[in-house]
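RESIDUES AND SHAPES:
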Amino acid sequence: MRLRKKWWARPMLEESPLVIINPKEKKGKWSEEFKNSNPIYLELGCGRGRFISTHGENNPNINYIAIDIKDEVLIYTLKNVQEKEIENVRIIPLEIAFIEDVFDKDEIGRIYINFCNPWPKKSHNKRRLTHTTFLERYKKFIKPDTEVWFKTDDKELFEASLEYFPQSGFEILFSTYDLHNSDFKENVMTEYEEKFTKLGMKTMCLIAKLK
């Protein structure tokens, strides 16, 4: 579904200190931004922000960064964070292809990727956020033993990702084709996940750790 353009969204994002409009300036300085040395976890494609705001609220000793390209959804992420008065979340409007320009070596301790675009055409596979092309980029700024938590409702993408991660030197720690009927207890549902689970969608999940 195409989002209607909200011309007022960008000015509102720019007014908030929680939104980092020029994230390249923070490269290597994210601990300074949060004013502490707590671990920094990253969500790629945060949507409307329930996932990241829930994590931020429940884990005050971890810093979170939420990235999405669309101002029209980031404005809801900001609203979620502000309403809960969460101080350990920052929001970045960014095309994820430029992720290497934003973070320095060993700055990130975990990555979440939730229901990203599956890019089903073979010629587009390299755009997948779990493709080896992107995994190699992440390795430039994640810490050793960093985990990537990935959820999708697309079986072909999931099975391809089970191959992508080992190819890039990650170990698969956990995987399931039916997350909500598994024994996994740490799941935080996204808005998308909740909506389509009610319609019978199965969520596939894997956790991979950099060796």
About this structure: The radius of gyration is 16 Å. The longest strand covers residues 142-152. Residues 108 and 142 are 5 Å apart (CA to CA). The mean pLDDT is 95.
